[in-house]
Amino acid sequence: MNPLLLNGWGIKLSVNDLKSRSCLVVTDGRHDGKQSTVMRFPPRRLPYSSVVVDGFSGYLSLRAAHWLAKNGIPVFILDPVSGALVSTLLPSGPLKADVKIGQLHAAEDSKKKLIIAHAFVKSKVARSLQLLEWLTQRYDKERELRLTKREASKLSQASTVSQLRTVEGRVALRY
Known about the structure:
Elements: E1 3-8, E2 11-15, E3 24-27, E4 38-41, E5 50-55, E6 58-60, H1 62-70, E7 75-78, E8 85-89, H2 97-108, H3 110-136, H4 142-152, H5 161-174
Parallel strand pairs: 1-5, 2-6, 5-7
Antiparallel strand pairs: 2-3, 3-4, 7-8
Helix pairs in contact: 3-4, 3-5, 4-5
C-alpha cells in the first residue's frame, strides 16, 4: 500500500482541461509556513494506491472524483481534528464472469479459502496499522495504536476463517 497523504490548508484535487492529455492536478496543503506542493499525474500513472485527505480547507472537483474512480483510486477523507474517517469515495469494482467463477471455485476449497482470507485480513490489518502510525505523528493516538497492534498480533495464530474474522473484527474495533 502506498497512499498519497494530503494535509494542511488549501488542498486541491482537480483535472486540467486537455482531453487527450488530461492530468490529475494535486495541490498539497500549506502548513508550518511552507508553500504548497503541486503534482501532476497522467491517467494510469498515479504511483499511489489511494488518496488520504487530512486537511482543514480545500476542494475535490467532480472531474477529479471521476478521474480517480476511472483509475481505481479510492479517496479517504479524515477529520483534521480527531483523525476519524469522515467520508470515502470508492471506485466501482469490475464484474467479469471468469473472475466470479474463479471466486466461486475458491470458496468451495477450504484450504484456498483460508489462504485468500488470511491474505486479505493481513493486508487490511497492515494498512490499518500503517494509517494509525501515520495518525500518531499528528494526533494523540498512541493508545489506539498499541491496542490495535495487540489484537493484530493474534493474526498468526488464526487457523480457520472464523478465527480470522474474529481477529479482523477485534482489530477493526480497536482501530
